[in-house]
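Re: beginner question about structure tokens

> Can someone show what the tokenized structure looks like for a real chain? I only ever see the sequence side.

Sure, here's an example I had lying around. Input first:
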Amino acid sequence: MIFDVTPTETRVVCSPKELKLLDRWLRIEPGFEERELKNYVHSARMFDSREGLFPTGLLEFVCRKCREEGVNYEIRWNNCRLLPSNPAVLKGIQPNGLEYRDYQREIIRECLKRGRGIVRAATGAGKTAIMAGLIRAYNYPKTLIVVPSVNLVHQTVEELNSWWGEEIAEPYDKRRLPARVCVATDRSVLSGLIAARLRRPRRATNVQKAYGVDIEVRRYFQEIQLLLMDECHHCSLSTPSRPSVYYSIAMCLPTFSRFGFSATPLKHGFNVQNWMVVAAFGPEMPIAADASSLIQRGYIARPYFYFFHYKKPKKLYSAADWRVVYREIVVCGEERNAAIVEAIETACKYDLKTLLLVEQIEHVKQLHARLQAIDLPVEVRVITGRLESEEQNVVVSWFREPGGKVLLSTRVLGEGTNIPDLDVVVFARAGKAHVTFFQSIGRGVRRLGRFKRNCLIIDFADKWNRYLKRHYEMRRKHAMKEKEFRSFADNVSLDEAIQYLLEEARKEEKDNDDGVLDNGS
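And the corresponding structure tokens:
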């Protein structure tokens, strides 16, 4: 069996018997998770038996299966070479006066050794620092960094340039393409790939018919030497027949050296979603920066979960569809929304910076109207995807300023955005998604808030409807999977939970003061 490797796909030259083996290895029969995807996944095939092609990210898996089955194979790399690197530049103090953490250096060295793969790095692990170290160790090659939102573009550019001490990274601009390091949203890159005819559009636009291929953009993407994709778990939203934007970008760019970064890159179990992420980047790195290890080392705050119990709704919609249940109990439910407002009102009594995360804009409007109707001691603002990017930046900048305040958000701030001194995250979205839940938790673990080493995550005990109860139990189970996460007992009030965390912060502050006084005496 001969593997001709290219950056995105590997062609196989083998016997018909070996083709059947590959077809069996690279197929997942539909299970529960696939049936949930609106029944369009009959079986997931990652191998095109007619063309003899499969994604290069799965090459290591295929080679392992060959060794297990006793099949001889040969790999031809076809100019898929690792970029020359110099890990020595990561030692000691960097040009900006900062220094890499020990685990960051280990991850960067492993990335340089492998050339491509998935990096599991929890919120607060310093993914941008790892990216900056990789680019510097590779001697600043032509790099494309893909992020999921406009807010993250500006945040990433600012953080990268602060690490290097010079203006190297730039936002993507089709009119003036950055020379070295470009940061762009997934949608911007996809539209550029379509304009460059590196990806076929679903429908050809009149502009494309009139002007044809954008040669300059095409040349730019073909010359990319290093691809870094933040929040790479978005590839898991794909199936082989319906690829996501993230997966499409990864499979269109002819770049061998590529890395995906996420706190939650792979789900538990053997499923299509995991295969799509691995197919795009390669296997997960053996060295990871998980949340528990970062909490133990004191790099991020420890989440304390408080599950708010609310009154039984007047109507439970027991026989209704999930969408009806979500609209009537979660979005419009009087009892649940009253509990959300009560939780925010309690947090505001202690002048805490609070982020409220919901799923729908309609829910934001309802909660904002309720909060405006009561006399809160802090300012309340709203951010949604309907705001222009400049308006979003203004709201985020306001929220980053010190002091107690409340921000209501849809998915705009659900992942990636850095808010260092956040005290409370109110997770009002419901649902069971493991990735969404953990990404939302990550907004509150930056360790600069009033609770010092801790943060408070408020969720709601949705136990009155069969759908909501199952999802609530799954979220509670997810919360306790990390050994360093903590949860308050059900008989503890929210006031008592906040007072406990404030007291813990005072003890820590007193211990630090005592340490300073002892050292000075």
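Each token stands for a local structural state, so reading them left to right follows the chain. The chain has 19 helices and 19 strands.
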